[in-house]
């Protein structure tokens, strides 16, 4: 009724317009192959300052327990997940913090780790460094993407023969926070590529139970479609229909550029040509060029090339001449009609034979890039716009974060850390004076000689 009213040019009630809008949004978001998320591991629990106080037990001594470790964040492979849509709806994930320690040397409970499921084929990238953290391909693969902070030590850990009653403890270490990019790369036996309107979706619908959108205009397919074809004798093929490619696709032109990476994991390609094109051979060369520009290995991936739409007389009459042209460039050309089912079975059988002759793709990690590890004791001193000196460095910022500033012993320990790292001398060279403010991490400290 809605479609009939629209066809006649009638105004739809407001409710219908909402339904249509929701339907369009749902279709548009049904396939999500990229997502950006933030993961936050739990911070460690605080260690405590505590002394044993028990009747008839003199000189009980320190018994402050350690804090529990913070929970880490993991990504786990789950076959039941099919897109990244859930990561579009929720973009931030946090694990639990560790609990603080207790008296009588009781350690705090560790924070519960957080696991989120992803389907095989996801690549996890660190958005800040650009490095690949993991390739989620195998079942039950578990990848730690953010490490929980260590629990702070209680004062019992600082007891020594020289300090029998330490009033020193550590706060918990902050957990890691990372911004991640998740990319989906479909895993299929066969990738169907070609120019827009070559009939790729029609072919997929003809050889499998998949029902992609089919229409007589280019760029009908807006997202990859998967289908499973039964060849008999318990042999099946998983096919992926990739949106149409045009010249410049590797550089972002058209719709296919966003989905070229899905072809990387296929073992064989079916290159479908539009029989109504003025020059199918030129179309073939353009697509080959785009594949090579995107990834060198795609250019040498085994292919089965077929011209489609031979149910049309004008196309069928061109087949002998086209086969001759393609044979000159060393390529066997098959003829099919996806809409009539003509030649499709034979084409799949030839594809299966090529798959049998093609070794299984071994998914290798990206080439390792070796970078010098930063020394945690390194630091930098700079003067900010308001004239205040800021000290930056992994070790010193972590020490400031984990210091109990309300305990004099803890403050003295922090000063010893400044001395051992050479920060005190460096600040004197910067001309620091008593009463000046120094920023370390989120803390502002007054300098006292």
Provide a descriptive summary of the structure in words.
It is a single chain. It is built from 12 helices and 18 strands. The longest helix is centred in the N-terminal third of the chain and has 16 residues, at 14-29. The chain has 449 residues and is α/β, with parallel strands linked by helices. Residues 1-31, 212-222 and 246-257 have low confidence and may be disordered. Strands 10-11-9-12-13-14 form a 6-stranded mixed β-sheet, with helices on both faces. The radius of gyration is 32 Å and the shape is elongated. β17 and β18 form a beta hairpin. The protein has helices spanning 2-7, 14-29, 85-89, 200-207, 280-294, 296-299, 313-316, 319-328, 344-357, 394-401, 408-421, 423-429; strands at residues 34-40, 73-77, 92-94, 114-118, 122-126, 132-136, 142-146, 177-184, 190-193, 225-232, 235-241, 268-274, 303-308, 333-335, 380-383, 389-392, 437-440, 443-446. The protein is 25% helix and 21% strand.
Features:
alpha/beta; six-stranded mixed sheet; five-stranded mixed sheet; elongated
Helices and strands in order:
Blueprint (H helix, E strand, L loop, with lengths): L1 H6 L6 H16 L4 E7 L32 E5 L7 H5 L2 E3 L19 E5 L3 E5 L5 E5 L5 E5 L30 E8 L5 E4 L6 H8 L17 E8 L2 E7 L26 E7 L5 H15 L1 H4 L3 E6 L4 H4 L2 H10 L4 E3 L8 H14 L22 E4 L5 E4 L1 H8 L6 H14 L1 H7 L7 E4 L2 E4 L3
Strand order of the largest sheet: 10-11-9-12-13-14
Radius of gyration: 32 Å
The H/E string reads HHEEHEEEEEEEHEEEHHEHHEHEEHHHEE
Helicity, as a percent range: 10-25%
Strand content: 15-25%
Largest sheet: 6 strands, mixed
Structural class: alpha/beta
Number of strands: 18
Please tally the helical runs, counting DSSP H or I stretches of 4 or more residues. Answer: 12
- Sum up the overall morphology in one term: elongated
Mean pLDDT over the full residue set: 79
Low-confidence segments, given as residue ranges, are 1-31, 212-222, 246-257
Question: Could you give the distance between the termini?
Answer: 84 Å
């Amino acid at each position: 009724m809605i479609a009939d009213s629209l066809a006649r040019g009638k105004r739809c009630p407001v409710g219908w317009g909402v339904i249509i809008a929701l339907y369009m949004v749902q279709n548009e978001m049904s396939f999500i192959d990229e997502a950006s998320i933030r993961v936050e591991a739990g911070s460690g629990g605080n260690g405590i300052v505590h002394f044993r106080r028990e009747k008839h037990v003199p000189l009980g001594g320190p018994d402050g327990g350690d804090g529990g470790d913070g929970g880490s964040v993991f990504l786990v492979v789950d076959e039941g997940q099919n897109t990244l849509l859930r990561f579009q709806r929720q973009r931030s994930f946090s694990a639990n913090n560790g609990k603080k320690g207790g008296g009588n040397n009781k350690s705090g409970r560790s924070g519960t780790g957080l696991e989120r499921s992803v389907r095989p084929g996801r690549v996890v990238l660190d958005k800040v460094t650009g490095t690949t953290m993991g390739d989620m391909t195998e079942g039950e693969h578990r990848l730690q993407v953010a490490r929980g902070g260590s629990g702070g030590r209680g004062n019992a850990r600082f007891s020594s023969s020289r300090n029998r009653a330490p009033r020193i403890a550590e706060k918990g270490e902050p957990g890691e926070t990372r911004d991640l990019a998740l990319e989906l790369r479909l895993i299929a036996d066969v990738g169907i590529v070609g120019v827009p309107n070559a009939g790729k979706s029609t072919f997929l619908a003809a050889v499998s139970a998949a029902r992609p959108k089919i229409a007589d205009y280019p760029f009908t397919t807006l997202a990859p479609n998967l289908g499973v074809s039964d060849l008999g004798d318990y042999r099946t093929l998983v096919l992926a229909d990739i949106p149409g490619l045009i010249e410049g696709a590797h550089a972002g032109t058209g719709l296919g550029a966003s989905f070229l990476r899905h072809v990387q994991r296929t073992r064989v390609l079916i290159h479908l040509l539009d029989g109504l094109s003025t020059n199918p051979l030129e179309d073939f060369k353009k697509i080959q060029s785009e594949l090579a520009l995107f990834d060198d290995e795609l250019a040498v991936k085994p292919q089965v090339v077929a011209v489609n739409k031979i149910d049309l007389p004008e196309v069928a009459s061109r087949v002998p001449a086209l086969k001759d042209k393609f044979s000159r460039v060393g390529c066997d050309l098959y003829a099919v009609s996806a809409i009539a089912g003509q030649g499709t079975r034979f084409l799949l059988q030839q594809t299966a034979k090529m798959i049998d002759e093609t070794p299984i793709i071994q998914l290798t990690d990206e080439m390792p890039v070796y970078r010098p590890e930063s020394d945690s004791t390194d630091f930098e001193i700079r003067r900010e716009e308001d004239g205040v000196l800021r000290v930056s460095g992994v070790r010193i910022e972590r020490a400031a974060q984990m210091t109990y500033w309300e305990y004099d012993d803890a403050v003295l320990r922090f000063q010893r850390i400044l001395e051992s790292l050479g920060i005190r001398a460096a600040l004197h060279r910067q001309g620091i004076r008593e009463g000046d403010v120094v920023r370390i991490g989120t803390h502002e400290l007054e300098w006292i000689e």
